[in-house]
Design brief:
Chain B: It is found in: Cytoplasm. The complex is a heterodimer. Chain A has 4 helices and no strands. Chain A has helices at about 1-15, 40-55, 60-70, 70-80. Classes of the chains: A mainly alpha, B mainly beta.
Chain lengths: ~80, ~140
């Protein structure tokens, strides 16, 4: 799980060019909204592509995306379940 | 979908002088599209880009890539695809009058309204430019 989280943080920072360090992202840091990583909807597609390439896990629909793209922890949990 | 394919101007809302695609050459619905742009000396932009040294602007190659990609996802003129993101764009060779620009766009993934494409532009089987382009399809 911690390996997945680390890879996810790297993916967020490199693919989305976030101006934060990996240490600055916690498992429960929100992806959207106030005090979050400041992602927007176009970043979601970039994340979906990144997760597919890095972990081989697909996010099949909008409902799943809305459920898991909340925190890094939530995405990591979904990846662990689907791998 | 098999050819002959509709003329780009019947799908895209673009018009002269900004319609940068002449023809759809091949289309695998939802996967891949190949389009042709004949680059001619009488294009408006060659008057100034550059004077006495006509080179197709890289920004317009990107626009042609976006139009190519848009042709895959725009089914009717009421929907417009807007550029959302351009990533890792490279311009390897200059495109000049007389070139036949062949643009191949492959859909990487989608999360409506966002659609991401990997696009390659070639002239005489040599890659002149490549980019990842994300379009937003208006409802």
């Amino acid at each position: 799980m911690s390996d997945t989280i680390q890879k996810l943080k790297d993916l967020l920072i490199t693919r989305l060019k976030l101006k934060v360090k990996a240490d600055g992202i916690q498992e429960d840091t929100p992806l959207f909204g106030p005090n979050s990583l400041g992602l927007d909807s176009i970043d979601v597609l970039e994340l979906i592509i990144g997760i597919k390439k890095t972990f081989g896990v697909e996010i099949p629909d909008k409902e799943t995306a809305e459920k898991i793209f909340v925190t890094v922890g939530a995405i990591a949990q979904y990846i662990e379940e689907k791998r | 979908m098999t050819g002959p394919y509709p003329h780009p101007k019947t799908i895209l809302p673009h018009a002269y002088p900004f319609l940068l695609i002449d023809r759809i050459l091949d289309l695998d619905e939802g996967e891949r599209i190949v389009c042709l742009k004949n680059v001619t000396i009488n294009e408006e932009f060659f008057q100034g880009h550059f004077k006495d040294n006509p080179v197709m602007p890289g920004s317009l190659i990107i626009e042609a890539m976006a139009q190519t990609s848009g042709l895959m996802i725009m089914k009717e003129k009421s929907k417009i695809a807007y550029l959302g993101k351009i990533k890792d764009a490279k311009f390897r060779k200059m495109v000049v009058p007389g070139d036949q620009l062949i643009i191949t766009s492959s859909l990487v993934d989608k999360f409506p309204p966002w659609y991401a494409f990997e696009v390659v532009a070639s002239v005489a089987n040599e890659i002149v430019s490549e980019a990842e382009i994300t379009l937003s399809l208006s409802l």
